[in-house]
Amino acid sequence: MPTPSMEDYLENIYKLIEQKGYARVSDIAEALEVHPSSVTKMVQKLDQSKYLVYEKYRGLVLTAKGKKIGKRLVDRHHLLEQFLRLIGVNEEHIYNDVEGIEHHLSWDSITCIENLVDFLGKNPEIVEHLRLLKEKTEQEEIEDLQSL
């Protein structure tokens, strides 16, 4: 299993290849906001772990194993974004929240969240009920603060 750091790289490499058709060290460094030398070191580790094939000065290609995990990581990220939106998390917090939790959930938890997202998608009245409950709770918090 890849480490959380390896996951971040694989997820971003997969996305870059999907968007551009390729992923260069400089593109990965920019996407992850790290130095190119850090990318080169990680790419070499990912090559040793058979997630990709890296040839210095020629670029990299994800292996079947790397593509499978990369897609799974991108899907996990999108699922968690969708879940947080459904439960009413403010849009400005979603990206950082997903980044903070995605590596700490088991794949069993991800499957359960996926089932819940699917269920909520088929039952929009429950999502609306959650939205109203959140609004009520926020209003009560405001009223409590005003009474201090």
UniProtKB/TrEMBL annotation:
Superkingdom classification of source: Bacteria
Q: What is this protein called?
A: HTH-type transcriptional regulator MntR
How, per the record, is this protein's activity regulated? DNA binding is strongly activated by Mn(2+).
Question: Could you tell me which residue ranges the HTH dtxR-type domain spans?
Answer: 1-63
Q: Which Pfam families match?
A: Fe_dep_repr_C, Fe_dep_repress
Q: What PANTHER family does the record point to? A: IRON (METAL) DEPENDENT REPRESSOR, DTXR FAMILY (PTHR33238), TRANSCRIPTIONAL REGULATOR MNTR (PTHR33238:SF11)
Cellular component GO terms held in the UniProt record: cytoplasm
Assembly and partners? Answer: Homodimer.
* Origin species: Thermoflavimicrobium dichotomicum
Q: Which residues bind Mn(2+) 1?
A: D8, E99, E102, H103
